[in-house]
Design a protein that fits this description.
single chain, about 260 residues, mainly beta, Membrane-bound Lytic Murein Transglycosylase D, Chain A, Jelly Rolls, 2 domains, 17-stranded mixed beta sheet, two-stranded antiparallel sheet, 4 helices, 19 strands, elongated
Length: about 260
């Protein structure tokens, strides 16, 4: 019996310090105390930046009804819910879908839906989707897939979009006083750094990239080479090769969004 004591202590220690505990017992949440006069909408606005997300708090805390919340009650705010959204659906036309790690499945988009870092969005053959981001708009054409992300660039917050395939129209206002791009569009072949610009980025079936600039200036880099693309010009980047020298574009395309 004495020989079994040490392994038993080791296993017990693992269990106590979290290896055998359920996920919501880990320190991946912040615990709050409901204050007098606080409603679920107020709590959701305060901690999730959106008063409409109160149902998510109920579900995570296993509370069946909102009227069971009372002052002094302890609620857990999970980290994955407390993330700040980096995009919001402004317009959607079927079929457009989004994928989150929390849901682990694709679901239909809707107007005012908040999207977070690492969320994926896709449109199908008849789909069209417009997203609001900080200082700009992103419009996804048909058969387009993007991944949203945040990154810190020289202490400047920047929106990062991974365009995996399809067509993305971006309209972006420069951040006042900033010397750095506020939007980065990355494809399998290139990176477009955006300050204050209107541009269209496309990725074809071979993962080649075309960037067309219609306002402002875009820097497009690949394979150690960067070209500046002014308004009215574009560049083509074959995957694995540097960008071409800027070439003259036709007139700006019309974005088909029903108001």
């Amino acid at each position: 019996m004495r020989a079994l004591r040490r392994p038993f202590i080791f296993i017990f220690t693992l269990a106590v310090f979290g290896f055998g505990l359920p996920l919501n017992a880990q320190k991946d949440f912040t615990e709050i105390t409901v204050a007098k006069g606080e409603t679920l909408s107020v709590i959701a606005k305060k901690h999730l930046d959106d008063p409409k997300r109160w149902r998510e708090l109920l579900k995570y805390n296993n509370v069946p009804k909102p009227d069971l919340i009372y002052p002094g009650m302890k609620l857990k705010i999970p980290d994955f819910l407390a993330r700040r959204p980096i995009a919001r659906v402004n317009y959607t036309r079927i079929v457009a879908e989004y994928f989150t790690a929390a849901a682990s499945k694709w679901g239909p988009t809707r107007v005012d839906l908040n999207l977070f870092s690492k969320d994926r969005v896709r449109t199908r053959e008849a789909g069209l989707l417009r997203l609001e981001i900080k200082n700009g708009l992103l419009t996804l054409g048909k058969n387009t897939i993007i991944v949203l992300d945040n990154k810190i660039l020289e202490e400047q917050s920047s929106t990062r979009v991974l365009l995996q395939k399809g067509r993305l129209h971006s309209s972006f206002r420069s951040q006042k006083g900033s010397k750095f791009p506020g939007l980065s569009i990355e494809t399998p072949a290139a990176v477009a750094s955006v300050r204050g610009t209107e541009l269209v980025t496309t990725v074809d079936e071979a993962e080649n990239t075309t960037v067309g600039c219609y306002k402002g200036l875009v820097e497009v880099g690949a394979q150690g080479k960067t070209v500046e693309v002014p308004a009215g010009y574009g560049t083509f980047v074959k995957k694995g090769q540097p960008p071409s020298e800027p070439f003259l574009l036709p007139t700006a395309p019309q974005i088909d969004v029903d108001e």
